[in-house]
Design brief:
One of its GO terms (molecular function) is hydrolase activity. With 163 residues, the protein is an alpha+beta fold. The protein contains 4 helices and 6 strands; from the N terminus they run H-H-E-E-E-E-H-E-E-H. The protein is 37% helix and 21% strand. The strands form 2 sheets. It has a 4-stranded mixed β-sheet.
C-alpha cells in the first residue's frame, strides 16, 4: 500500500479501508512511501521469489539510536514454494535479513536497514525444518533477496530526487 511520504496516519484504520476498497479479506501487506511502480523488483532462485521495494531516507544500524524518522523503507515479501515448519519460517526471516544487511553494506550504505523495514514469509505449512545459510533453501533466499534488493535500490537511486 503506497502512502504519502509524510504519512503519519492511523495505519490500522487505513489498512482496513484499503482492504475493503480492494475487495480483500484478511490480507497481509506493507505500507511504503516509495513509488512502488518505480522501485519494485522481483528475483527468483530455486523455489523462492523475493518481491522487494526499497528506499533509504532513514538508514539505521541495529543497536544505534535511530535518525529522525523519514518515510522510505525496505519491504521484503518472500514467496516460498515449499512446505515449511514455523521454525523454518523464522529461519527464513533471519536469512533474508542477513542477505539484506550484506547487500546494503556491499553497496556502500552504512546501515543494516532502515527504521521501518518489513518482511513477510509466505509458504505452505509443511515439513521443511531449516532455511539457514547452510541449506539449499537458505542459499536460494539469500540469492533472491540480494538480487531483488540491489535492483530496487538502483531504481530508487535513479528516482529518489523526483519522489
Amino acid at each position: 500500500m503506497q502512502v504519502h511520504k509524510n504519512y503519519d496516519g492511523d495505519y490500522k484504520k487505513d489498512c482496513l479501508e484499503f482492504e475493503r476498497a480492494n475487495g480483500l479479506e484478511n490480507f497481509v501487506g506493507f505500507m511504503t512511501a516509495a513509488d512502488i511502480e518505480k522501485v519494485l523488483s522481483i528475483a527468483e532462485s530455486g523455489n523462492v521469489k523475493a518481491y522487494i521495494t526499497a528506499g533509504i531516507t532513514n538508514p539505521a544500524i541495529a543497536g544505534d539510536e535511530p535518525p529522525r524518522f523519514l518515510s522510505k523503507t525496505i519491504n521484503i515479501a518472500l514467496v516460498i514454494e515449499e512446505g515449511l515448519t514455523l521454525g523454518a519460517m523464522a529461519n527464513a526471516i533471519m536469512t533474508a535479513t542477513e542477505a539484506k544487511t550484506y547487500t546494503l553494506l556491499n553497496l556502500g550504505y552504512n546501515a543494516t536497514g532502515t527504521t521501518s523495514d518489513g518482511i513477510g514469509v509466505f509458504a505452505f505449512e509443511g515439513e521443511q525444518e531449516w532455511a539457514g545459510t547452510a541449506t539449499r533453501l537458505g542459499i536460494d533466499i539469500g540469492r533472491a533477496v540480494r538480487k531483488a534488493l540491489k535492483e530496487s535500490l538502483k531504481k530508487w537511486e535513479k528516482t529518489k530526487d523526483s519522489l
